[in-house]
Design brief:
Beta-Lactamase; alpha+beta
Length: 227
Amino acid sequence: MPKINFRQLKFRGKEQEESEEEEAEQLADYEKEALEAIEEVKQKEEILKVKREKKKIIGLPKRKEYSVEEHGELVEYSPPVGWSIVEEYWLLEPYCKAFIIYNEEEQEYRYQVVEPRLDPYETEVYGHLSVLLKDKLEENFFEDGKVAKEVVLKETFDDLISEVGFDLEDRSYYKIWYYIMRDFLYYDKITPLMLDKMLEDISCNGVRKYMYVFHRNYTNLRTNVIF
């Protein structure tokens, strides 16, 4: 029968006890750090909540609803020399319109998409907001329904304008909002064509080429949209 070294057992027992105490202390430290981290997150969330509420109360002046009388037309169009307008209709009022034009000499109809024209400053703001929105929006934004997405996009769009401090007149605001909505909710440059119920087919013969459409009333038409 082997001999039992009680002194060694006692030493090991003491060593184990010290190890357990050390682990308990470490666990207590971890729990304390975790609780402090949770509390810090809660405080940050509370601060952000207060900031959001303040923004709602004392943020930028509320935008006036768009009206042609007050803000003017967002889309303007004059056909090229030798061409005349034979029909025009809205694709997404008041942002985007389709014009069917005709050239008597060429005996040709064409389909013109007209969208708001951005000036250099508006173009720069649009570019900044596009980048910021991609970073700001959560992944599940692109999985939600269109109505829900539009609400989230609009709120985030307004928040970013307020946060960054972009100085925008109402007319500029609505012009930029159209392009943000077009690119994030719809189909980018081909959105106007996709929204036209009079089109039965859309085609393109290569990269950076004019797109063609088959119109119910005018058959095959070349558009001014390059894809």
